[in-house]
From TrEMBL:
Keywords: ATP-binding, Coiled coil, Cytoplasm, Cytoskeleton, Microtubule, Motor protein, Nucleotide-binding. It comes from Zoarces viviparus. One of its GO terms (cellular component) is microtubule. This is Kinesin-like protein. Residues 171-260, 349-376, 512-543 form a coiled coil.
Length: 923
């Protein structure tokens, strides 16, 4: 503020470091000390006053230089200049003094006003000269407008002592002010420091509480996660325990079943070997009988030779006797001698007859033996036990299903866990990031609260561990999902996680890890179980196939009718509908009926994908039998539109020929192969059973109509007859010979052209009649001359139909009624035969008469039951399958129609001899 200092024997007055005046220490002679302003006033009055001793001009500049922070002056504070100036010494100039006093009073007021008003400025701030002066002038103007023009340049001359006093006073005031300012400053500093301290504490407090609440939230979240993880762990442990228990149970069952299957397989092997032994024994017996029969035949041949010799000898003797008789007649010998000679010649003939009787007896004996043998063949064969796999398979499949569903559930749970863990991991990472960012902000604000920092550190480390825990869980869960073991040390993160796992710091991780390991174990076990199941199924299938093969052999030997089942593909009208038929394997088919699935067993089951070749492949064997001299019948059965004609005949364009055309080829292929040993003759007749009337298909209806009026007789009737051996034949039907497959096929086409076919709702080319194609193959052995006659009957039955479904009306309805009637008669026959009833109603229908030798007769019969896979035909399918199952129970007595050359000739000789005919020598 103000200071004074000695300067070359003079004192200078400075205000706030600015030199404002100087006082000479040694007053000039005759002059009092006076303050001189450093700035000289340009006003002449000023100069005048200042030149006067004891006076110092107090200019606006001086006042202006006063500090702005001068404390407010009280109203009663007297003007120091007036107070300190001894105006008495200016008695000579009273008016001027008064004027000055008044002026000073005004100025003091103005000064006081200025001090209390806008002049309170921050130290160092420049004083607004204009404002001071304007105020000074304003105050003077108010009271004395006359002085207005001089107010700008008012110069006050005060006595030096007064000025000194004034200045001293001012200096003291200033000092006091300075002190007060300093005190205030100190106070302010203290307040500031206290406030800053308080503020800091408050901020720290707030940050701490903020952190605390965040920490609490985090802890709560962590607790929640912990709880969740524990719950999950418990769930996992429970499911793992359940799976382990299930697995153990399964393994136990598997062990038991494996043991049982082994035992049963052994038993089955034993049965099989027994069966094979039985077969081979029977074969041996058959061979030995064959050999002995041949021997017998040889002997018989020799005997016949002897008889012939005897006959020749006797006839020669007779001849001689006759000749002798004639000569003796001529010579006149007596009658007695002639009679004697005749009696003698009769003796060898008697011997020959006796020998013939003997031979006959021995042949009958052989016949009886062979019949007994055949009877023995028919004797019941011990039942074949079901293979063990058959019993096991449903259990295994059930268990496998249970495991698969458990695995699916576990997978879903695992996916859920992975997702939840991933979300939790992301959240924990976010939280950690946010916490770290908050801490960085706090660091920027330079808060140095140790407790808060410690808490922050602990929460960060806790969060980091949680994040790690989640990362490990994620890794473990991923490993579980992919089914791979966790790759250790493949990267730093994994090794770190492995460290954590190893230290066992995170219970959750350990739990997850153990669950993962157990799951991996379970997966392995499941794989093993699946492999074993697959192997068991394979074993079962092969066992079943073998069993079926042997079973079929046995059934064949028994003469059982073979039944194949063929499922046709869905047709255009059925596309999009439900299919209820499923081929389980080569021998069984299941139908989903409203009362649950029903399984049917057949000798062979062909699915929709089976080709005509596949079907014929298994049928081919019967063609060979027909050529060997057996009576063979192949017929198709099923509802309308189920594919009977497709199976028997094939499609219209013959791109997929059926059994009939293939059989024609096969017959001639076999004939070709055996042409060096046999001489064959193939002939055929083809009939249609239409509206219970048998029609010869080689005669066209037009031709028949033409022939009838010319012959004037009744229409040629075809009738079913049976020969002595029970083989059915059509009397009155034209039989045509064929020397090649093409010729036979041409005959077949000719017959088909005469068939009744029309379109129904169910089938565009529905057979309205039953087609019967009979091919007779006569083979004569070139080596021994034996003759066998085989008959191959190929029957394409018309399909059973419901008028409502087929939309049959009028004529078609009559056809349908007739078809259904004949089929129902066939059903009755099948039922009677399968139930082994004493009476079989063959005569109820022409169809059953035609098929008499095929069902319960002496034929080798194959029935193909055709079914539709669709739900809309479910009833018909079930009916067909039930009938087919019944047919399987029917036993035929297949016999070969062969006549041995010698026996036939012997019989002929006997017949001739009996009838008294002469027997030719070349027999
Ligand atoms: N296995 C199959 N593969 C392809 N198409 C088939 C099969 N089975 C039948 N079809 C077709 O189904 C339709 C009806 O067959 P098909 O004429 O053989 O029946 P159907 O049982 O003889 O009938 P209907 O008793 O009325 O004569 C035909 O168009 C036939 O081509």
């Amino acid at each position: 503020m103000y200071s004074s200092g000695a300067e070359n024997g003079s004192y200078s007055l400075t205000f706030l470091g600015k030199k404002v005046g100087r006082r000479h220490s040694v007053a000039p002679a005759g002059k009092q000390h006076a303050w001189e302003t450093t700035e000289r006033s340009s006003c002449p009055e000023d100069r005048e006053l200042s030149s006067r001793p004891g006076r110092v001009p107090v200019t606006a500049q001086v006042l202006e230089d006063l500090p702005g922070s001068i404390p407010e002056l009280k109203d009663e504070t007297p003007c120091p200049i007036i107070h300190n100036t001894q105006f008495d010494q200016y008695e000579d100039n009273t008016a001027a003094v008064c004027h000055h006093k008044t002026l000073w009073m005004k100025r003091w007021d103005a000064f006081r006003c200025w001090i209390g008003g806008n002049h309170r400025k921050h130290p160092g701030q420049e004083v607004n000269r204009g404002s001071l002066e304007s105020q000074l002038s304003a105050s003077s103007d108010a009271d004395q407008p006359a002085d207005a023009e001089r107010s700008q340049d008012v110069k006050i001359y005060i006595p030096y002592e007064s000025a000194e006093l004034c200045i001293t006073q001012i200096a003291e005031d200033m000092e006091a002010l300075k002190r007060r300012h300093l005190e205030k400053l100190q106070q302010l500093e203290e307040i500031f420091q206290a406030t800053a301290r308080e503020n800091q504490e408050w901020t720290v407090q707030r940050i701490r509480s903020n952190h605390q609440s965040k920490m609490n939230t985090l802890r709560r979240i962590l607790d929640l996660y912990q709880e969740k993880v524990e719950k999950k762990n418990a769930d996992w442990e429970r499911s793992v325990a359940a799976l382990t228990a299930q697995n153990e149970q399964l393994q136990e069952e598997q062990r038991v079943e494996r043991r049982r299957s082994k035992e049963e397989a052994l038993q089955w092997d034993r049965e099989k070997s027994k069966m094979l032994e039985l077969f081979s024994n029977r074969l041996d017996v058959l061979h030995s009988h064959q050999a002995s029969t041949l021997q017998e035949l040889q002997m018989a041949r020799q005997e016949v030779g002897k008889v012939q010799e005897m006959l020749t000898a006797s006839s020669q003797e007779q001849q001689e006797v006759v000749e002798e008789g004639e000569s003796s007649e001529n010579k006149g010998l007596p009658d007695q001698q002639q009679t004697l000679a005749c009696n003698e010649s009769d003796q060898p003939l008697e011997g020959a007859k006796a020998r013939l009787e003997e031979l006959k007896e021995s042949l009958y004996q052989r016949e009886r033996e062979i019949t007994e043998l055949l009877e023995a063949e028919k004797s019941p064969i011990p039942p074949i036990p079901l293979p063990p796999c058959r019993v096991l398979l449903p259990t295994v499949i059930h268990k496998a299903h249970a495991i698969c569903s458990a695995v699916d559930e576990t997978r879903a749970l695992l996916d859920l866990m992975i997702e939840e863990n991933r979300v939790a991991l992301v959240e924990a990472r976010d939280k950690l990031g946010r916490l770290q960012m908050t801490e960085e902000d706090s660091n920027d604000r330079e808060t140095t609260d140790q407790d808060g920092f410690d808490e922050y550190e602990s929460s960060v480390s806790l969060l980091q561990e949680t994040v790690r825990g989640y990362e490990v869980s994620q890794l473990a869960l991923d490993c579980i999902k992919t089914g791979e073991s966790p790759a250790t040390n493949d990267c730093d993160a994994v090794s770190e996680l492995e460290d954590i796992l190893g230290r066992g710091t995170i219970g959750t991780t350990e739990g997850v890890k153990s669950v993962g390991q157990q799951l991996l174990l379970l997966q392995d076990q499941l794989k093993q179980v699946k492999d074993e199941k697959r192997k068991m199924i394979e074993n079962y299938t092969s066992e079943r196939t073998m069993r079926k093969k042997y079973y079929n052999m046995v059934e064949d030997m028994k003469g059982k009718i073979r039944v194949f089942c063929r499922i046709r593909p869905v047709n255009r009208t059925e596309v999009g509908g439900t299919t209820v038929v499923e081929k389980m394997d080569d021998y069984s088919v299941t139908v989903e009926s409203p009362r649950g699935p029903r399984e049917f067993q057949f000798d062979m089951v062909f699915g929709a994908e089976a080709s005509q070749e596949d079907l014929f492949h298994d049928t081919n064997r019967l063609i060979q039998s027909a050529i060997d001299g057996y009576n063979v019948c192949i017929f198709t059965y099923g509802q309308t539109g189920s594919g009977k004609t497709f199976t028997m005949v094939g499609d219209k364009e013959q791109k997929n020929p059926g059994i009939m055309p293939r059989s024609f080829n096969a017959i001639f292929d076999i004939i070709q192969e055996s042409s060096s040993k046999f001489d064959f003759k193939v002939s055929a007749y083809m009939l249609e059973l239409y509206s219970d009337r048998l029609q010869d298909l080689f005669v066209s209806p037009a031709g028949e109509a033409q022939a009838q009026p010319q012959s004037h007789g009744p229409a040629r009737r075809v009738e079913i007859k049976r020969n002595r051996k029970g083989v059915v034949f059509a009397q009155g039907a034209e039989t045509k010979e064929a020397s090649s497959a093409q010729e036979l096929y041409a005959l077949f086409l000719q017959a088909c052209a005469n068939r009744h076919i029309s379109a129904t709702k169910m089938n565009l080319e529905s057979s309205r009649s039953h087609l019967i194609v009979c091919i007779m193959v006569e083979s004569r052995s070139l080596t021994n001359g034996s003759v066998s006659t085989g008959k191959l009957s190929l029957v394409d039955l018309a399909g059973s139909e419901r008028a409502a479904k087929t939309g049959a009306k009028d004529h078609q309805l009559k056809e349908a009624t007739s078809i259904n009637k004949s089929l129902s008669a066939l059903g009755d026959v099948i039922s009677a035969l399968s139930a082994e009833l004493p009476h079989v109603p063959y005569r109820n229908s022409k169809l059953t008469q035609v098929m008499q030798d095929s069902l319960g007769g002496n034929a080798k019969t194959l029935m193909i039951v055709n079914i539709s896979p669709s739900e809309c035909n479910l009833d018909e399918t079930l009916t067909s399958l039930i009938y087919a199952t019944r047919v399987k129970a029917i036993t035929n007595n297949a016999q070969r129609n062969v006549e041995n050359k010698e026996i036939a000739q012997l019989k002929e000789v006997i017949m001739k001899l009996r009838s008294g005919q002469t027997v030719e020598e070349d027999i």
